[in-house]
Amino acid sequence: MTHIHSTVAVGGLTVRHRRTTALDGLDLELGPGVHGLLGPNGAGKTSLIRVLATVAAPTGGRVRLLGRDIADRRERAEVRRRLGYLPQEFGYYPGFTVREFVAYVAWLKEMPAARAAAAVERAVERVGLADRIDARIRTLSGGMVRRVGIAQAIVNEPELLLLDEPTAGLDPEQRVEFRALLRDVGTASTVIVSTHLVEDVAAACTEVTLIESGRLAFRGTTAELTAIGEDSLADDGDDTPPGGATEAPGASGGAGSPRAWGAPGGAASPAAPAAPDPSGASGDAGSPGAPAPPRRRPAPHGSAIERGYTIVLRAHRAAVAGGRR
């Protein structure tokens, strides 16, 4: 099952929480690079990340990380020294300074004392908090605390970096910087980013894994997922996904909703309907004096990958439903 270059290799992975199956016989292999883990809420993303971080045990299946079998206690301990992990709910000691907390995590990772101090400073600098390194964490903003979480995850220069919703709380400029950091780390390590924001995957990841209801729905490159959306747009001659949404299923359409990076707020959203004609004309194309319908703007890159995401999810759900009949 395991390829020589696979950092992550899981086979038949099953996770159950009482009566709920979070992962249902998942098979997956990942190597170096930045991998986006996509899926709607409840798809099983966090359950997978927690198993890979060795903080949760699977119900069934096989898991090998960095060439080690994590079912073995000694091999699991070795893996923990070589990985970095930022959970969705990040716990910390408010009274610690940034330096103290990141150093504490370096100690937990059993980093040699001779290089730990420099590693702490480098990690904090990489997340843009060098000027706050001796500030107590309780004095930081929510976005800064999230960056402390990223710093502790990379302090040991992990070979496997696991990030669960890492951009929560980051402002737009910080998200751009974070994406650059991911690309840098991913040149030598395997980075897995679990998120529901398709735009983050489009901007930072080279590979995409999409899971739905604990099963693999898509595995490929971001370019391949984008191409699915672009092909559909070409077929339709329209930049509006099925049902009129340009967002991933379940998105609220608020400020945090997926859209093309760099576009003004809501630029990827469907065009607002034209205001009613004060003259009372119906606006039909055949009505005398009716204005021509507005030309649609070309779909931005983000829209294409979001549409590809939606198409893949719907096809997977249809296939699963068909198999149950």
Give descriptors for this structure:
globular; 325 residues; 19% strand; 9 helices; 4-stranded antiparallel beta sheet; 6-stranded mixed beta sheet; alpha/beta
**Count of helical stretches:** 9
Segments where pLDDT lies below 50 for 5+ residues? 239-288, 295-301
* Structural class by helix and strand composition: alpha/beta
Task: Summarize the main sheet.
Answer: 6 strands, mixed
Q: Please report the distance between the alpha carbons of the first and last residues.
A: 31 Å
Order of neighbouring strands in the sheet with most strands? 6-7-8-3-9-10
Order of helices and strands: EEEHEEHEHHHEHEHEEHH
Helix content: 25-40%
Strand content: 15-25%
Shape: globular
Please compute the radius of gyration using only Cα atoms: 22 Å
Number of strands: 10
Mean pLDDT: 82
Descriptive overview:
The structure is a single chain. The protein is α/β, with parallel strands linked by helices and 325 residues long. Helix content is 36%, strand content 19%. The chain has nine helices and ten strands. Helix 3 packs across helix 4 and helix 4 packs across helix 5. The longest helix has 24 residues.
